Amino acid sequence: MRYPLLCLALLFNLFACVAFAQDDAVAKNLDAAKDRYDKALREWYTSVSNWLDQREEAARKESNNKTAELIKLDRQAFLDKDETPESLPNPLKQDISDARKTLIAAYETAIKEYTKASKDTEATAVEKELAAFKAKIAVSNGDPSVASSTQPRRLTSPKWKSI
Question: Sorted alphabetically, which keywords does the UniProt record give (predicted)?
């Protein structure tokens, strides 16, 4: 009688370890994707800062004070509000866009894996993280359609100007 119970207990522990390892792998993969995104984001910030430095230096060499002031405003908005400068070259825009798409794909994969493993709580938590990440991206891109409790909605429609 003890032998079958012992085998059953060992089998249960084995399945529990496999399920835990699978969940752990999903979390590890998502954490690795977040780390890669953070690294790409730091590199991108450095690249944009260097690009702004070069533009400002060129404007000052040309004695173009108006352009230098605009660049300073771009830099201030970039550093204080995380707003991407409108005149940013496409390769730099593409770098951050690719990094964001990769992280979003990692979030979506984690949600699918947690859902397959019937880990609804974890899937919901990752969905909330993804929604917060997408909202942060939209705010940093100046998207007026994003509203949250901490960020008031900007009313830019012409019909709102008359109110």
Answer: Signal
